[in-house]
Amino acid sequence: AKHEGRNNFQIYEVSPEYALQHGMALKTRLRHAEGNGELRVVYQPQVDAKSEDIVGMEALVRWEHPELGMISPAVFIPLAEETGLIVSIGEWVMRTACLQAKEWEQRYGLRLRLGVNLSAVQLMEPQLLDTVARVLRETDLDPALLEMEVTESISIKAVPNLVENLHGLHNLGCHIAIDDFGTGAASLDYLRRLPADRIKVDQSFVRNIGVDPDDEAIVRATIEMAHRLKRAVVAEGVEIEQHLQFLREHGCDELQGYLFCRPLQPVSFDKLLAERQRL
Ligand code: C2E
Ligand code: CA
Ligand code: CA
Ligand code: CA
Predict the structure, then answer these.
(1) What DSSP state is assigned to residue 197?
(2) Cβ–Cβ contacts within 10 Å for residue 202, how many?
(3) EAL domain location, by residue (predicted)?
(4) Contacts of range 105-110, beta carbons closer than 8 Å, 24 or more positions apart
(5) CA–CA distance, 195 with 232 (Å, rounded to integer)
(6) The whole model's pTM is what?
(7) Separation between Cα atoms, residue 90 and residue 98, nearest integer Å
(8) What is the mean pLDDT of residues 73-87?
(9) Could you give the angle at the alpha carbon of 124 between the alpha carbons of 232 and 156, nearest 5°?
(10) How high is the ipTM of this complex?
(11) From the alpha carbon of 236, which atom of ligand 1 is closest?
(12) CA 133 to ligand 4 center in whole angstroms
């Protein structure tokens, strides 16, 4: 279990092993998690690499189980995908986060970009575009502020609607980010075939800055390639000053990671924005 303090929703009392053993029971509970108000959305800032201004945020879901405590999305998202619950959970996360982004836009006059993760299961849904269009209409958020994060581990072949759905989302005015870039087998194919505006360099590369020259070379090459293709680059998992310096030096556009901020509950994120406003 991680112990980063309850305020940041970082305590995962349920291990992947537990989840494996109690998968059925968890799935049954998960069915009611949304209705029981046990789901939360936390927000992690993304900052401009030069100014360190907050320019965006990623919405990350949490499950606050009344007996088991906070359950990591790494544990319950796979269960939600197996059961198909991810479709309604994903819609709930999107709506909650869009409402929140709209609120912050109105309160602080800030147009922060909002990253929302999409699962392969959602991307297979023919109704995805209708759902996103409806959420945007109902929350009145500018589509240009919504960025869908699609992990590169999703196979273009295995998800027949993927390319079509992403073009559809792009046509709605949303942005697309390729998540976990460099970890799948299809990085370049993804870049060529999907309407991506942004690349998220995976944390496994960032972690090895200062450690593994090969990974450093991959990070530099990724930034260079992305820029030649006129895509922006965010690095995830920026934890120490050395990461920051390297990424800045090599022209990475934006940064996300514990060095700046952990994912925050809405009240804490709100405080952060209010403080920045006063500076
Ligand atoms: P991801 O999309 O790659 O999200 C980034 C993960 O890295 C988050 O973990 C975040 O808390 C963590 N992180 C951020 N900065 C740092 C850092 O500096 N160091 C380290 N070690 N980690 C950092 P989290 O919130 O536990 O989410 C895990 C994964 O669960 C996400 O990975 C994403 O794949 C999935 N997920 C989370 N929320 C959603 C959601 O609403 N829908 C879907 N489909 N998947 C989600
Ligand atoms: Ca993500
Ligand atoms: Ca990622
Ligand atoms: Ca990941």
Answers:
(1) S
(2) 23
(3) 23-277
(4) 105/141, 105/145, 107/270, 107/273, 108/273, 108/274, 108/277, 110/54, 110/273
(5) 13
(6) 0.94
(7) 12
(8) 94
(9) 55
(10) 0.97
(11) 15
(12) 26
